[in-house]
């Protein structure tokens, strides 16, 4: 167990996943702030903190549920034709469905942020809130929607790291707890940073496209899929880590260049 959590793959996966969880949680922070700001001033901070803590518990519970389904790797139906071989399991179905969802969510989010960036915020602003209880319920509902892509991202980043599903689950829970803790402590500063550098959030959504595609290929690989005798292989996660690290490095250089005073 110690060897796994101190391995370079596990550490890099934890750092990358925590970063993505924070960036993907920016919209969540914005919507939670909108909901909390409808309350009297003395209740706003309380509603935000309680909402985020309950959101963390909600995500951990969902992680247990998804991890249980991922563990169901035994095929329950086999397709075997002249040109296609496929061993369908619940694990493959969850990974494949999650990959499709991430592709749809990331592309639609990118389109909305480019064309109608305030569409979702206006919808949340239109809902009336009269008490702390109503605010917390609305925060939980908002977080549930954003938890889906967050959890699927966690599954995509950790699936296959260890043969023991419990280790992967613990790694995902640690990342969720750290990211929520950082969001509670630095919510406003993180939101201001993203407002100044919106390319970071678009970059995170682009990473979701990569993770979604990786989940689809992983599902095909675990199903022992073969097209015309050619099997589908899994994409090494090192490629994904390199793409993320390289993109962040380029973005960092862009920040440095933009901060230099023009002559």
UniProtKB/TrEMBL annotation:
Its main location: membrane. Keywords: Membrane, Transmembrane, Transmembrane helix. It holds the Pfam family TerC. It is a multi-pass membrane protein. The keyword Membrane applies. The chain crosses the membrane at residues 12-36, 48-71, 83-104, 135-157, 169-188, 200-219, 239-257. One of its GO terms (cellular component) is membrane. The keyword Transmembrane helix applies. PANTHER family: MEMBRANE BOUND PREDICTED REDOX MODULATOR, SLL1022 PROTEIN. Belongs to the TerC family. This is TerC family protein.
């Amino acid at each position: 167990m110690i060897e796994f959590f101190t391995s370079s793959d596990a550490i890099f996966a934890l750092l990358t996943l925590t970063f993505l969880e924070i960036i993907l949680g920016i919209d969540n922070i914005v919507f939670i702030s909108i909901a909390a700001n409808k309350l009297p001033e003395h209740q706003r901070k309380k509603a935000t903190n309680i909402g985020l803590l309950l959101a963390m518990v909600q995500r951990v519970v969902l992680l247990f549920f998804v991890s249980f389904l991922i563990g169901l790797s035994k095929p329950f139906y086999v397709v075997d034709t002249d040109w296609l071989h496929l061993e369908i399991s619940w694990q493959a179905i969850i990974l494949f469905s999650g990959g499709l969802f991430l592709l749809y969510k990331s592309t639609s989010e990118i389109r909305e942020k480019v064309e109608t960036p305030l569409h979702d915020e206006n919808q949340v602003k239109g809902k009336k809130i009269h008490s702390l209880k109503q605010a917390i319920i609305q925060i939980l509902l908002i977080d549930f929607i954003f938890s889906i892509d967050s959890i699927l991202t966690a599954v995509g980043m950790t699936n296959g790291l260890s043969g023991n599903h419990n280790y992967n689950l613990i790694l995902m829970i640690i990342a969720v707890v750290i990211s929520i803790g950082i969001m509670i402590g630095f919510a406003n500063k993180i939101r201001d940073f993203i407002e100044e550098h919106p390319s970071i959030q678009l970059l995170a959504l682009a990473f979701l496209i990569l993770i979604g595609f990786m989940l689809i290929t992983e599902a095909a690989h675990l199903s022992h899929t073969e097209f015309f005798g050619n099997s589908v292989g899994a994409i090494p996660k090192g490629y994904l880590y390199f793409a993320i690290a390289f993109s962040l490095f380029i973005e960092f250089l862009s920040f440095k260049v933009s901060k230099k005073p023009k002559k």
